[in-house]
Amino acid sequence: MQENYLAKWLNNELSETELAEFKKSSEFASYQRLLEVSDTLKAPDFDAEEAWMALKNQRVLHSPKVVQLHPFRNFLKVAAAIAIIVVGSYFYLNSLNDTIVTQYAENKEVLLPDTSKVILNADSEISYSVKKWEDNRIISLEGEAFFKVAKGKRFTVATKDGIVTVYGTQFNVEHRRDFLEVTCFEGLVSVTFKGEETKLPAGTSFLAIKGKVLKATAPEANMPAWMNAESSFKSIPLKYVLDEFERQHNIKVKTENIDLEQLYTGTFSNTDKNLALQSISVPSRIKFKLEGNKVLFYVENAP
Q: Is the pTM of this model over 0.85?
């Protein structure tokens, strides 16, 4: 009842009878004081137009930039991107090669898909396609590896300087900086170098240094020396010998006043660095200083 009177009173809609009755109520005095105080309050000036412009500016400043694309063009771009990914993935997966790498002073044995074995010497790398092995029996080699081919199997070893075709055999291939040597220990291999083919029966070798084919000596054992933890050389320039020492012992080699083209014949240990240093320096008539993982080779009158 009082709530209805209050609303009508605020809107000046009470009849005289209702107003007289409302004034008699205990709440009327409080309502009257509130009304008097509210009349003295003044709201701050408000410009509706100015407020609306400020609100619009605020939204423009903070709203994200949206660039609309034609829906069909957008679809084509997405479809093209998906097609590229799918096609690229297909060719990538179908051309994917297995790559095996050895570090300095490390050997590693690898079993090929046809059960042939490859043993990698230090600082060497081979790669081949497992997925396409039956159709693409090619092994890429950088470094040195001994191959023991499964009976009746055949594949090709490719290096940057020559191609070795295998006819079921055991053989060793070394390809390093301007150096290519192939030794056949069992069976028959074919070496193609600069377009010319040379067939190697068991117990023969092929040697090319700096693009020139040289006379190679026959192997003295039924496997390469490095597989018995030794490195063996016959009339090989000293620089290749020192490179091999560095690979086998993981020791940085420096030289001073040394003829690196002088020929070396000998064998050094791949496990005993001190013995190896003596085996290289004595026949070459040079000195060495070993400090940690570095060694300096120098001639007699060098410091």
A: no
